[in-house]
Amino acid sequence: MKITYSQAGVDTEAGDRAVELMKSAVARTHGPAVVGGVGGFAGLLDASALLAYRKPYLATSTDGVGTKVAIAQALDIHDTIGQDLVGMVVDDIVVVGAKPLLMTDYIACGKVVPERIADIVRGIADACASINTPLLGGETAEHPGLLGENEYDVAGAATGVVEADAVLGPERVREGDVIIAMASSGIHSNGYSLVRKVLEVNGWDYTKHVDDLGRTIGEELLVPTRLYTNVCLEVADRAHAFCHVTGGGLAANLARVLPQGLLAEVQRWEVPPIFKVIADLGGVPTADLEGTLNLGIGMLAILPQEHGQAVIDTCVAAGIPAWEAGRVLADDGGQALRGAKGVQGGGVRLTGQYAGL
């Protein structure tokens, strides 16, 4: 008996068709610094621009989208998940003030369906194009027997550059700084295991229409992660630190960009309807909501008070609602979250009550 690669579950011709379908979208992200086209073993970037830096630091990040892909698969909608990937990866390097130079992606699937793979990559490419970042390479791997025919996962990595003396972070944060909140577009890409469990326990299908949301719960949950790259880079020269609010919620992430001895006091804010829907449906305690979901804030900027309003105006002009959410104070030793995710940072205290929750 002769066994072919196709009989083993891998369709190389489908992989080739997927590449053909995605090529034009990927090529649109390539500016003059990209050397060569799509399909090489390695992507090449002309890095001559780095010669203008006095002491360039490279910044890198890698991430995925998590179990949000399960919703995309259930609804057979695959062209939005790519923006989630770009947001999760690129906006992590922007936190240190780095300008993204390139991004790469990796898709593992049980079976290559060319149109589906092309949709995923098109979403990644469109998001990369919107932040002027070349999608320089990628890989689609077919894993029959490991993943189901309609299952896939996505991951990506990005590299950026920042001048050594322009790196943002805890060392720059000062007492008296203001904290500017930038609104999220929804749940983004974190906490979906909790969200999916709440829906499962209550028997909600993703096609269920929710009046408070004005659309189905599935449509709401697939809203792509807002990209903060452009606006953060625009205001980086006025910022002391940024905080990307991802897994762990606002307080745990904010503590990572504060120095010991300082405390961020943040006034609780008006929470978008999707979070109330999840909270009420699942009876989820506030502590779990705060420690899992972004609750409506996707990025924070910490900066001197005199620049606060100008940064808010810049965000609003870019279509991102923003407001002053709090201040940086001397740590009074009172109750607060101090340090998180392996970082012995400053403290974060949330005050007041959420509106809309």
Q: How would you characterize the overall build of this protein?
A:
The protein is α+β, with helices and mostly antiparallel strands. It folds into two domains: 12-44 and 53-166, 60s Ribosomal Protein L30, Chain: A, CATH 3.30.1330.10; 170-351, PurM-like C-terminal domain (Phosphoribosyl-aminoimidazole Synthetase, Chain A, domain 2), CATH 3.90.650.10. The chain has eleven helices and 15 strands. The chain has helices at 12-27, 68-75, 81-94, 114-130, 192-201, 217-221, 229-235, 249-255, 273-282, 286-290, 308-317; strands spanning 34-35, 44-45, 56-64, 99-109, 135-142, 152-163, 178-183, 209-210, 215-216, 241-244, 262-267, 297-303, 322-330, 337-340, 343-351. The protein has a seven-stranded mixed beta sheet, with helices on both faces. A four-stranded mixed beta sheet has the order 3-6-4-5, covered by helices on one side. A two-stranded antiparallel ribbon has the order 1-2. Helix 1 (12-27) packs parallel to helix 4 and helix 3 (81-94) packs parallel to helix 4 (114-130).
How is the secondary structure organized here?
Elements: H1 12-27, E1 34-35, E2 44-45, E3 56-64, H2 68-75, H3 81-94, E4 99-109, H4 114-130, E5 135-142, E6 152-163, E7 178-183, H5 192-201, E8 209-210, E9 215-216, H6 217-221, H7 229-235, E10 241-244, H8 249-255, E11 262-267, H9 273-282, H10 286-290, E12 297-303, H11 308-317, E13 322-330, E14 337-340, E15 343-351
Parallel strand pairs: 4-5, 11-15
Antiparallel strand pairs: 1-2, 3-6, 4-6, 7-12, 7-13, 8-9, 10-12, 11-13, 14-15
Main location: cytoplasm
Subcellular location: Cytoplasm
Organism: Flaviflexus salsibiostraticola
